[in-house]
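User: I'm putting together a small comparison set for a docking exercise, and I want a reference complex before I start. The sequence is below, and the ligand is uracil. Could you produce the 3D structure with the ligand included, as structure tokens?
Assistant: Of course. I'll restate your input first, then give the structure tokens for the complex.
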Amino acid sequence: MGEVRLQKFLADAGVASRRKAEELILAGKVIVNGKKIMELGTKVDPQQVNVTCEGRPVKVATAHIYIIMNKPAKYVTTAKDQFDRPSVLSLLKKVKQRVYPVGRLDYDTTGLLLITNDGDLTYKLTHPSKEIAKTYLAKVKEIPTEEKLEQMRKGVSIDGKKTQPAKVSVNKIFDKNCELMITIHEGRNRQVRKMCEKIGHEVIKLERISIGNLKLGELPVGEYRMLTARELEYLKQKLT
Ligand code: URA
């Protein structure tokens, strides 16, 4: 959102009209981060600043937004990248608010990514105790035996720690490869790739198709939309 003039900040917070807010500033009624401010040009960052007016705290209620994106490959899910690779945030052409992805998807992974500015929801969604199911389609080299799939279901050791039980089934069979449908409840680094590697079947392509009941549906790769009221209601209920 960036910095705004103090009088706009006060007006946006519903304290008074912009003109009246200017009068309050000039009258020395506004305290910013503990300091009386009487200059009208003063700029503040609504996300960071601590303001009181006539002794009462002033808060701007930031409207939360919730975006569902079909992440393309070759994009990172961090805002900045050490190799200067493009961020998914650069695809949000129409979004003015400062938002961030919930959790991460690898550079080469495609599929369902939630993006929001709701810190509380992000915290709950990524917290291990909430165990929200995430389903992936993983195209792997060759066709794993039922025995190997059973190992994955029961848990395999990756980075020295056993994975929790997972749902794993063969979704499609190609000539030499196959596509697995894998549902996990954790979000460890490169978890699906590592689970498949562990049973000897390297991942060639990985897509996340759902988080809980939220599905990508027909959303084209690289596009995004706002969550519907029903989807948001579902998520909030799931996380209480
Ligand atoms: N597991 C992975 O290996 N990569 C992802 O991007 C998500 C889950």
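The radius of gyration is 23 Å. The longest strand covers residues 203-211.
User: Thanks, that's exactly what I needed.
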